[in-house]
Specification:
By secondary structure, the chain is of the alpha+beta class. The chain contains eleven helices and 20 strands. The chain folds into two domains: 224 residues, Rossmann fold; 141 residues, Nucleic acid-binding proteins (OB fold (Dihydrolipoamide Acetyltransferase, E2P), Beta Barrel), CATH 2.40.50. Helix 2 packs across helix 3 and helix 2 packs parallel to helix 4. The longest helix is centred in the middle third of the chain and has 18 residues.
Length: 390
């Protein structure tokens, strides 16, 4: 095992595209670090530079105490698991698992011992004579992981290894990889665009955007204390609800104004938020921070919203509703809206909130739903800088 480090690493491609810019990141010995971000954020390029498959334009890359910028990939003592599995179709499972060891001229007995141990650990013992075409997607992925394990490297590098699997198998393999990683204790860098994978697997998560590191912390900290609007909108499923608002005082109370609606806010807000006075802010509300307020329930922390769609998950209802307040969409969310043919101007006219409610709440499309907002768990952001106000 070994610690890994990026120190001021930049990657500029020949066409002038800067894929990674001044990237600094330390990965502890034995840590599982997840690099997460939308397509084009630079996460896979950073991983490929660590593997030696791309040359860094500037900066220093370390594996352990060794600077590896000019070290060939085969000499970096790392093992990579690819999205495409990259198995040899003409070889059976046993030969796929042991291929790298044969290239290292390892003795046949040692190869057999390592391959056998990896196959047992991964539940592949009964499949060692089969070829990749006769395996399921999950079995192929386990072979790809096993090929990395037998090498006993200093670090594993995984580039979206589960993206080709169906949803059910992806959940199973996610748990499987997490358990395997705890058993092995090997330093791992894991790239994904799926924030659920990032939240459930990483010791820490590094959020990337436009080639830069935006925030790096433990998953729960990223969720509870996002550094800016991008992280707030990216981490979490469903995403945090965001809208333009302002704070104003009246009757010795502080109110959050969302469009034509006012909700009383407790006075225990951070001083930096209170100092905003009547200035505009962006307010963030997680879906689980809203609950159903039945008609007749007197509450000065209720938000009225018009239901557009109800999704039943069995254990929960996801209620999507329009709120009388200007919306705030991150650049990533605007890009998604454009891809599905949406009208960004219309999308910004009214905020669309998602509330996670119990399955027995009687609500349907077209209804006006009353949502109690947990004011203790609001998030505030500066609309100009997009940074969190704390």
């Amino acid at each position: 095992m070994a610690a890994l480090a990026f120190e001021g690493v930049t990657k500029v491609f020949p066409d002038g595209t800067e894929a990674v810019s001044h990237f600094d990141l330390d990965v502890g010995d034995g840590e599982l670090m997840v690099l997460v971000g939308p397509s084009g954020s630079g996460k896979s390029t950073a991983l490929r530079m660590l593997a030696g498959l791309e040359e860094a334009t500037a900066g220093t890359i370390r594996i352990g105490t060794r600077v590896v910028n000019d070290v060939a990939p085969k000499d970096r003592d790392i093992a990579m698991v690819f999205q495409s599995y990259a198995l040899y179709p003409h070889m059976d499972v046993a030969h796929n698992l042991g291929f790298a060891l044969r290239m290292q001229r390892m003795q046949r007995a040692s190869i057999g011992e390592r391959v056998g141990a990896a196959a047992r650990r991964l539940g592949l013992s009964e499949l060692v004579e089969k070829r990749p075409k006769n395996l399921s997607g999950g079995q192929r992925q386990r072979v790809a992981v096993g090929r990395a394990i037998v090498r006993e490297p200093q670090a594993f590098l995984m580039d979206e290894p589960l993206s080709n699997l169906d949803a059910k198998l992806r959940v199973e393999m996610r748990a499987y990889l997490s358990r395997l990683r705890h058993e092995l204790g090997t330093t791992t860098v894991y790239v994904t665009h799926d924030q659920i994978e990032a939240m459930t697997m990483g010791d820490r998560v590094a959020v990337m955007r436009d080639g830069r590191l935006v925030q790096c912390d433990e998953p729960q900290t990223l969720y509870d204390r996002p550094a800016d609007l991008f992280v707030a909108g990216f981490m979490g499923s469903p995403a945090m609800n965001l809208a333009r608002a302002r704070l104003e005082r009246g009757d010795d109370e502080l109110y959050l104004v969302l469009g034509s609606q006012r909700m009383r806010v407790p006075g225990r807000l951070p001083d930096a938020v209170l100092a905003r006075g009547g200035a505009p802010v962006v307010v963030g509300i997680r879906p689980e921070a809203m609950s159903h307020a039945p008609p007749g329930h007197d509450d000065d922390q209720v938000l009225m919203a018009t239901v557009e769609l109800v999704e039943s998950l069995g254990s929960d209802l996801l209620v999507h509703a329009a709120v009388d307040a200007p919306a705030v969409l991150t650049e990533d969310q605007l890009e998604v809206a454009r891809e599905v043919g949406g009208d960004p101007a219309a999308d910004l006219a009214r905020a669309r909130f998602t509330a996670r409610l119990p399955p027995d709440v009687p609500v349907g499309a077209g209804d006006v739903v009353r949502l109690h907002v947990d004011m203790e768990h609001l998030h505030f952001f500066d609309p100009e800088t997009t940074l969190a106000i704390r």
